[in-house]
C-alpha cells in the first residue's frame, strides 16, 4: 500500500467523528474463526486487544491525502504479512443528536510491485490512564512521555530508522505538542538535544492529520525521544483526566518510518506512588487516597496549586515501557528537560 485518501460524506462534517484507527491483525488470529467473529472477540477483550493489534494508521476524519515516498510502501497480504485490516471509528455526540448519517471512509491505493523499503508506524505517548491529571485553571500544563535509550538500543537496527511522517494527537484542551530528539555525545557521555522531530504549538483538535515532515529524521539505537503535550484549562470546570473520551485527554504521537521493524508501542506514565504521595499531602488527601487506591471523583474538591503540581509531575520518577520483536522492556527515568 503506497497511499491513502480519506473520504467524508456526512451531515455536519467533522462534528461527530473523533478519530479513526486502522489496525493490522497479527497473522493467525483469525484461524478457526470468521473475520467478523475475530473482530468481535478482539474488541470485547481489552487485554488481548492491547497485545494483538498494531496501529497501522490513525487520523481525525478530515479530507486529506497521505502518500508514501516513492521507495516506501506499507506491506499488506502475502505470506507472513497482514491478511486483514480492522478499522475502528470513534464518534463524539455529547448532545445525543439523532438522525445523523455518517458515511466516512477511506480509499487505499496499492501496487503489486514491491518497494525498496517497508514502512512501519510507531505508537508512542503517555499511558491512557486517569493518573494523567490536568488541573483546572491552568494556562499551560505539560504532560511528558518518553521513548528511552534502552528501548531504541534494544529494538532499532544498527543504521536506525528514518521518520518521514507523523500524527500528533491530544483532545480538546490540548493546544500544543513537541517531539524532542536527544542523542548521546560519546566524547563527553551526555545527551544533546537535536532539532525537534515534529512540533505544533497551535494545535487544534478539530483539524488533525498525518503530516509529511520537512526532512526525514534518523532515529538511531540509543537515541531518546520525548513527547511534550501542552494543555490549557482556563475556564474548565473540574480536573481533566486521561482517557478515551473526548472530554478526557491523551498525549500521543504516531511516527511513520522506514525500514519497518517490529517496534509496536512505547508508553510511559508518572510513578503511582509519587502521585499518591502528592495527593496525600493535600488537606483533603485522606479522602482522596485510601491505601493504594485513588478516588478520582474527589479530585474536584482540591484547591489546585497548578505550579506546585506541575513541579511534582516534572520531578517524579516515570515508568517507561516498550514492546518489540523479542523485547519487552520497562525502566524508570526522569524528564530530560
Automatic annotation (TrEMBL):
Keywords: Disulfide bond, Glycoprotein. This is Dopamine beta-hydroxylase. Residues 117-278 form the Copper type II ascorbate-dependent monooxygenase C-terminal domain. One of its GO terms (molecular function) is dopamine beta-monooxygenase activity. GO terms for biological process: dopamine catabolic process; norepinephrine biosynthetic process; octopamine biosynthetic process. GO terms for cellular component: extracellular space; secretory granule membrane. Belongs to the copper type II ascorbate-dependent monooxygenase family. PANTHER family: DOPAMINE BETA HYDROXYLASE RELATED, MOXD1 HOMOLOG 1. It holds the Pfam family Cu2_monoox_C.
